[in-house]
Design brief:
With 249 residues, the chain is of the alpha/beta class. It folds into 2 domains: 76 residues; 136 residues, no CATH class. It is 32% helix and 27% strand. The protein is built from 5 helices and 10 strands, in the order βαββββββαβαβαβα. A 5-stranded mixed beta barrel has the order 3-5-6-9-7. It has a two-stranded antiparallel ribbon with strand order 1-10. A hairpin with a 4-residue loop joins β5 and β6. The longest helix is centred in the N-terminal third of the chain and has 37 residues.
Length: 249
Amino acid sequence: MRPERRAFRPGLWPSLIVAVLLVLLVGLGFWQLDRAEQKRALLEEYEHRPQQAAVRLDAAVRLEPELRYRQAWVRGRYDPAHQFLLDNRVHQGRAGYQVLTPLRLAHTDAAVLVNRGWVPQGRTRADLPPLPVQSEGVITVEGMIDYPPEDPFSLGEGEARAPGWPKVLQQIDFELQSRQLDARLLPLILLLDPAQSDGFVRQWAPIPERFGPARHVGYAVQWFALALALVILFYWAVRRPAEDGADRK
C-alpha cells in the first residue's frame, strides 16, 4: 500500500493572512536588532566620552548630542528648598526616587538640575524622604552630562504641579520646571560624581544591564523563530491529498 501523496495547495485568504503575519514577525525581529545596535552605540559613547576633557557648563550651553556622557563642572549655589524627586527609580529591586537639586549658576539667571542619586521610597506615597544639602554658598560641582529620556506616555503630571516641595516627577519637563523655579534651566542633567559630597546612591549607567543589547538580540531570535515556525505550520496545514490525475502526471 503506497503512502498517500499530498500536494501544496494554499487558499487565497489563508495565504494572505500568513503573508501579513510573516511580514509582521520578520519586521519585529529586525526592529529588535536595530534596538540592539542602538544600545551598543549608547554603551560605546558611555565608555569613551568620559575620557575626554571635562567641559565647563555655563548659561550659554546648548543641547548637543556630542555632550552626552562628557565629564563637566559648574559653579553655583544649591537650592535645597526647591528639589524634585524623579519617581519609579529602582535600585537592587527596591523602589525609590532620584533626587534632582537645582544648582543656580553664579552671576546668571540660569540653573542646572543636579541628579544627586537614588533614595528609597517611604512607607507611603505621602512619606517623602529627607533631602539634606550640606554645602553652602557658591561651590564647584562635578559630574557627567546626561539628557533625560522622553516619555510621551508618562502619567502623573498632577504631582509635578501640586503645591509644596519637593515635587514628585514622572519625567522631566524643562519648560515646566523652569517656571516652577523661576530660572532658566539648562537643557541637560548633571549626574553628580560619586566622589563629590552631598550625594546619595550613585551607580550611573546608560541602561540597566538586564536591558542591554543581548536582550534585544534574544527577542529578535524569538521573532525570527516564530516566523519560521509559521511557515512550516502553514506548509503542513494546507497540504491536501494529491488527485489521481496529478499522480499519473
